[in-house]
Inverse folding.
């Protein structure tokens, strides 16, 4: 049977078919690209900013692995001459694979005085 | 969406039909678009699982459009074309609403955006299909019900529509933590009671409550037919429940016992969808 459609319907069909095909292609590409690498969390910090309660510091948590990490506990510590002067922690609900999340921690003292050590010390497989 | 058979519909008719589809799509999917467990599934699920999801939604759309959404003489080409349109419109609508809700953003990774949009788009697409068919003007042939009733009377058609109804209802609660919580905390005896209650509700809706057009769907008169009809509906509901729970990752790492318990817990909304859906989706 010949399909009877007006130009609007044809346009919608063509756009839809392209979108669906693109999604399928991207998912196939994604499944071929994705390995089984567990979450690999990299924590980086930005320049501190003076805030009312001390010094706020932006934290960026990136997941380089192929699996999502959940319930991350990120700890940022200020160290000087091998001693920890102050620490702050950040809980991140999820960092999807190849994605990142951002947050802030606040220190009483200026972090520029010390070495900033940042790491995610626990996360779960959702 | 091409429900007219012999000549192409006017542009105004098409736009009205898309409008109905959009209304239906949002009506059925909005609870899930506002549910965070569903967004999480979008980025937790691996691409292979999302592909299975997309394929399952497409098969559901084919089934619904074949048996309930279009005229009985619609060709498979028309059914496929309509299903592709609904999926595409579902993708656009889901992306737009998720963007307005701040659930997708330029700062997110492409994988995350793709997963979240695909999950929500599947549900929107099913809503589009039902909205186009059910929210239509009943005077018009293109709402497609007259012929499809004969189709729907076939056993295969009934199974497909029951499955669609089950998925649509169960999907609203399947991603929530409550299902696994009930499954873990409830005693065996109560779960057995829940299973019997689910069966009874199925029978009640299909055979005894004189729902609008229930006569057409269920022609059973003997007690054995009622029992068999209810059992088949419940079986479909359980299969739909298990499939949805698997997709939302609710079976990952769970013992078989807990998987079965979750399936039974979700069985009640699912059987409501399967039996009521058979009636309501076709009226």
């Amino acid at each position: 049977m010949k399909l009877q459609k007006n130009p609007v319907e044809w346009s919608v069909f063509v756009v839809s078919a392209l979108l669906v095909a693109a999604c399928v292609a991207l998912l196939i590409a994604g499944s071929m690209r994705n390995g089984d690498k567990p979450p690999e969390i990299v924590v980086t910090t930005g320049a501190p900013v003076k805030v009312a309660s001390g010094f706020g510091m932006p934290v960026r948590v990136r997941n380089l692995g192929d699996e999502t990490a959940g319930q991350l506990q990120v700890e940022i510590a200020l160290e000087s001459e091998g001693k920890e002067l102050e620490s702050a922690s950040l809980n991140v609900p999820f960092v999807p694979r190849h994605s990142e999340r951002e947050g802030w921690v606040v220190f009483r003292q200026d972090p520029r005085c010390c070495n900033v050590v940042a790491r995610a010390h626990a996360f779960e497989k959702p | 969406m091409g429900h007219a058979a012999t000549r192409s519909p006017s542009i105004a008719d098409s736009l009205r039909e898309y409008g109905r589809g959009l209304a239906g799509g949002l009506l059925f999917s909005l609870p899930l678009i506002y549910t965070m467990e569903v967004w999480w599934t979008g980025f937790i699920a691996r691409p292979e699982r999302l592909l299975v999801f997309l394929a399952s939604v497409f098969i559901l759309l084919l089934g619904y459009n074949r048996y309930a959404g279009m005229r009985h003489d619609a060709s498979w080409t028309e059914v496929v074309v309509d299903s592709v349109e609904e999926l595409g419109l579902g993708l656009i609508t889901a992306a737009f609403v998720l963007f307005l809700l701040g659930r997708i953003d330029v700062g997110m990774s492409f994988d995350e955006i793709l997963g979240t949009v695909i999950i929500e788009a599947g549900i929107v697409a099913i809503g589009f299909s039902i909205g186009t068919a059910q929210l239509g003007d009943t005077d018009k042939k293109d709402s497609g019900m007259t012929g499809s009733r004969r189709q729907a009377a076939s056993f295969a058609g009934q199974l497909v529509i029951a499955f669609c109804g089950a998925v649509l209802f169960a999907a609203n609660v399947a991603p929530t933590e409550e299902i696994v919580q009930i499954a873990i905390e409830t005693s065996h005896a109560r779960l057995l009671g829940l299973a019997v209650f689910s069966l009874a509700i199925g029978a009640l809706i299909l055979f005894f409550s004189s729902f609008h057009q229930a006569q057409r769907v269920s022609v059973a008169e003997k007690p054995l037919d009622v029992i068999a009809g209810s059992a088949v509906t419940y079986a479909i509901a359980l299969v739909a429940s298990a499939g949805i729970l698997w997709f939302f990752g609710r079976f990952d790492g769970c013992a078989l016992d807990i998987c079965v318990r979750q399936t039974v817990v979700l069985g009640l909304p699912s059987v409501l969808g399967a039996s009521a859906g058979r009636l309501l989706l076709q009226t």
Residues 139-152 of chain B have pLDDT under 50 and may be disordered. The two ends of chain B are 20 Å apart (CA to CA).
